[in-house]
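Dear support,

I submitted the protein below through the web form. The confirmation email said the job was done, but the results page showed an empty box. After a refresh the structure appeared. I'm attaching both so you can tell me whether what I see now is the final result or a partial one.
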Amino acid sequence: MRVWRVALDVPLETLFDYLPPQALVVEPGDRVAVPFGTRQRVGIAVETASQTDVDESKLKEITGVLVGAPRLPHHWLDFIRFLAGYYQRPFGETAVAALPPRLRSLRPLPKKIRAAVASSPSGTRFVPTHLPTPAQAGAVQKIGSALGSFRAFLLHGVTGSGKTEVYLQLIARVLERGAQALVLVPEISLTPQLEGRIRGAFPEACIVVMHSGLEEVARTAAWLAAATGDAGIVLGTRLAVLGAMPRLGLVVVDEEHDTSFKQQEGLRYSARDAAVALAKRARCPVILGTATPSLESWQNALARRYEQVELPERAVPGARLPHIHAVDLRAEPVQHGLANSSIEAIRNRLALGEQSLLFINRRGYAPVLACEACGWAAGCSRCTARLVLHTADRCLRCHHCGAEHAVPRFCPTCGNADLRPVGRGTQRIEETIAGLFPSARIVRIDRDVARRRAALAQTLEDVRRGDADILVGTQLLAKGHDFPQLTLVCVLDADNALFSTDYRATERLFSTLVQVAGRAGRREEPGEVRVQTRYPAHPLFSALERHDFAGFAASLLAEREASGFPPFVFELALRAEATKLDAALEFLREAKRLVAPPGPVEAYDPVPLIITRRAGLERAQLIAQSRSRRALQQYARDLRETLQALPGRQVRWHLDVDPIEFA
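What the results page shows now:
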């Protein structure tokens, strides 16, 4: 008997068998309506089978084939199957969830969605902004020779070296071949600038943007334009890698090192790694572009799994990498977190009509509100974390669960009315700078002011035009922005990451500092970067001053290999949440007892997470490591199958393959 196997959005591993409809033709990749329980559900027809384990009398028939969306291509189904298996999620749940919400519904698509797709342009004319430099031309030639086949390239270019121009030149070749290009960026806030560059270079092409901030109609229309092949270029954040593109000819991952490419809930996938897997199945090149490669990608290049392409100089004639130096806070007077020499440097830039950036990777006014009389500090009742003082909103806010509280007038412990902010955030630095330079035009950019994308895009454009003198911001300003008049960067409170318990903290700090330093001096005017620290002799700052990524990466890789950390081992985290910490820990201990790790895998004892309580739940984790990816994957499958079979209990759990966060 011939049956169809259909993927459904249910937390079960199996596909479900259905009889073919008598009057309809079904093909693999079709969205279908099927009876499930007492109602109809949307599924994806995956494959046919000549036999079934289901009693013939219980088999139901596929109700219908849903129209309005194209058939999902074979390489997409294969890609989703890989993701589901590698990241330990049911295939049906992964496949259906990858569709935009409107396509998971049995309702027909509204006319405005169909009209948006039908009106898509289709030109391929390329308008280059300037002639490529020799290094750019060489990169385009090398990567372009791989079009039509799978190869992975690590495009390592210093900040300002023109990686985007390389992308554009290659996209032009892809469009000429009648294929599609996918460009991934780590942050929604980065898409307007890059979207403007792409639209300017391809004024007649169908270009769609995909990210979670889009409303339903726009998101569905973008997905459909990509899936029909009408969209020649798809630009988006990590979820865009899950889109269906039947003529995919090139995948670009910009700022590949960025941790925002890792999804932290549901299917906990790395969009960077997924992009490589997608390109392999679509038989097209993938470019991982960055000035500071992740150690995983750098090691892959050293091992010749990726081909390395270098852009060693800035693209603008006369532009040079900025002069970076550590400012020793032990030897200089400091005013409100700013060294006197940094204040003087800002004053000099104001006199020259140039822009300055004060970078502090902490939003809010102060990270702690405390009472000096008794030592009380405002903490979140739902998380093991301090509440951050936000003076603009006159509230205390938890940056982990989002809880907000009014600022108390008195200490709740001793009644002292003299409560003081401790530490500095972007709001406090903005206030300090406004007091020091009252006539300066100051712009603060952090997640508190970036909630409205249109307003953020306009603010960034104003900065590029020169309608600001001093910027105060977090890592939102460190990624991909080009401010022509910015010549000075002052980095505040850079030392915190040097003492983190996270083994990736030093790598991330170096990457962040290189990226933010790269905003300075991107034209003819020389740039200066001042990193304020109490540890100027730390090897990180020495490598930063030399612009020596390769040397710093070599030292970190040696440490990782000696310590047994990625990329020389693979990791898995089993995490549990419960109302009581003992319940979460006992669940993990039982998991370790029930599923003995195979020989190549080492499973460590369960421990509480650093932020043990989040949103009212106590959290713990079990870490497993192995030098064999295959062995660790088998252990993960055994854990999932065993834990899913356990009777219901008041513990939530999930598996995180290749985890990057341990707090």
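Response: this is the final, complete result; the empty box was a page-load delay. The chain has four domains: 3-98, 118-311, 323-366+423-558, 570-657.
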